[in-house]
Design goal:
Blueprint lengths: L2 H18 L8 E8 L5 E8 L18 E6 L1 H10 L1 E6 L10 H7 L10 H8 L2 E8 L2 H5 L1 H7 L6 E8 L9 E5 L1 E2 H22 L6 H9 L2 E2 L9 E7 L9 E3 L9 E7 L12 E9 L6 H15 L5 E4 L1
Parallel strand pairs: 8-9, 13-14
Antiparallel strand pairs: 1-2, 3-5, 3-6, 4-5, 4-12, 5-10, 6-13, 7-10, 11-12
Length: 319
C-alpha cells in the first residue's frame, strides 16, 4: 500500500473510531500535512481545525439559541468599541481564566498518552485561539449581581444586549460558536474521546502528530464549574494560524515585563473588501450598571459617540 492510500484509510478510521464515536460527528479537519516515512509508508500527519463554521453540529457543543446575547464589560471598553466600530476577541493566553484548555486536556489524556502535553505546548495552542465570551440573553441575567461583579466592573461597567445575524454563518472562516459545557456535563464525553483515541493508537500504531492543536478548538468549550450557577455561557472562537488567514494586533503593556495582549477585531460595519467573512454583530441596547458614576454625563457622551460612528442608535438605559 502506498502512503497516499494509507493516509486515506487512516483518516477515515480516525474520523469514525475517534471523532464520530465520541459524539462530534461534524468536527472535521481542515488543512492536512503528511509526509512519507520509512519504506515509502505513511510518516507524520498534522491536521488543522476545519475552516467551516458548523463543526459542532449534532454534538453537545452545538448552539441552538436565537443568537441574542449579553456581553458585560467596562465603560472604557464600550467607548473603544464605538470609536473603533469593532469588538475584540482576545487570545486565550490572556483570558482571566488561567485554566483555559486545561480541563479539556486533563480529561482527554489518560495513562497511555499522559506525557504528550506540556506547558509550552499548551501556551502555543492557546496562542492560536481568540475568544469573545457571551451569555445567552435573558432578563434575569441582566440584574444578577454576581454577573456584574464578575464581568461588569463590579457594577460600574456596562452590559451590551447584542444580536448576531447568521445570514452569512456558513461563510464564517475559522470562526465557531458553541455552548460552554461545565465539568459535570463534559467530563464523560472528554474521557470517552481520550479512550477512543488511545484505542485507535493501539490498534493502528499511529498518532496524529499535533492532536492537541487540532482538538484545542473543541477543548476550549469545556470549563470547570464555578461556585455560581452555570451562566448559559456561549463562546465565539477564532482559530488563527500564526500570521496567516487573519491579522491580529497587540495591546502594548505599560510594564515592559508584561507580555503584549493579542487580539483580533470583528468589524461592526464590515465592507466588501474584507478577506474573510465574520459574524455580523448589532448592539441593541447599552445597559449601564447601577453603581456607575456620572451616568448622565457618560450616557450623553456615548450618545454623541454613537452619532459620530454608528448608523443606528442603540437604546441606552440604567439599572
Amino acid at each position: 500500500m502506498d502512503c497516499y492510500s494509507e493516509l486515506d484509510d487512516i483518516l477515515k478510521l480516525f474520523k469514525e473510531d475517534v471523532i464520530v464515536k465520541s459524539g462530534y460527528p461534524s468536527f472535521k479537519y481542515g488543512q492536512l500535512i503528511a509526509s512519507k516515512g520509512t519504506n515509502g509508508r505513511l510518516g507524520r500527519v498534522e491536521m488543522q481545525p476545519s475552516c467551516q463554521s458548523d463543526i459542532f453540529k449534532d454534538s453537545i457543543l452545538e448552539y441552538k439559541g436565537n443568537y441574542r446575547f449579553l456581553h458585560f464589560t467596562k465603560y472604557c471598553i464600550l467607548e473603544s468599541i464605538i470609536k473603533s466600530k469593532t469588538i475584540r476577541m482576545y487570545e486565550l493566553n490572556h483570558m482571566e481564566d488561567k485554566n483555559e484548555l486545561i480541563l479539556g486536556y486533563t480529561n482527554f489524556i489518560n495513562q497511555q498518552n499522559n506525557n504528550f502535553i506540556n506547558e509550552n505546548l499548551l501556551k502555543e495552542d492557546k496562542s492560536k485561539l481568540f475568544s469573545l465570551s457571551l451569555n445567552e440573553y435573558d432578563e434575569e441575567s441582566i440584574t444578577k449581581e454576581y454577573m456584574w461583579e464578575k464581568y461588569g466592573d463590579k457594577g460600574s461597567g456596562v452590559c451590551l444586549d447584542i444580536s448576531i445575524d447568521t445570514s452569512n454563518f456558513k461563510d464564517w472562516f475559522r470562526l465557531y460558536i458553541g455552548s460552554i459545557q461545565y465539568i459535570e456535563k463534559g467530563k464523560t464525553k472528554l474521557n470517552q474521546l481520550g479512550n477512543n483515541y488511545n484505542n485507535f493508537i493501539s490498534k493502528h500504531n499511529f498518532k496524529i502528530y499535533n492532536i492537541s492543536e487540532y482538538l484545542a478548538v473543541l477543548f476550549s468549550f469545556y470549563k470547570t464549574k464555578t461556585k455560581f450557577e452555570p451562566e448559559n455561557e456561549v463562546r465565539l472562537l477564532n482559530y488563527v494560524e500564526k500570521d496567516i488567514c487573519c491579522t491580529y494586533k497587540y495591546i502594548k503593556p505599560i510594564d515592559d515585563n508584561i507580555s503584549k495582549t493579542k487580539f483580533v477585531n470583528i468589524n461592526l460595519f464590515p465592507n466588501n473588501n474584507e478577506a474573510y467573512n465574520r459574524p455580523l454583530i448589532r448592539i441593541n441596547t447599552i445597559i449601564f450598571g447601577k453603581d456607575i458614576n456620572y451616568f448622565s454625563k457618560k450616557s450623553n457622551d456615548i450618545k454623541e459617540l454613537l452619532k459620530e460612528n454608528f448608523n443606528y442608535n442603540p437604546q441606552i438605559i440604567k439599572l
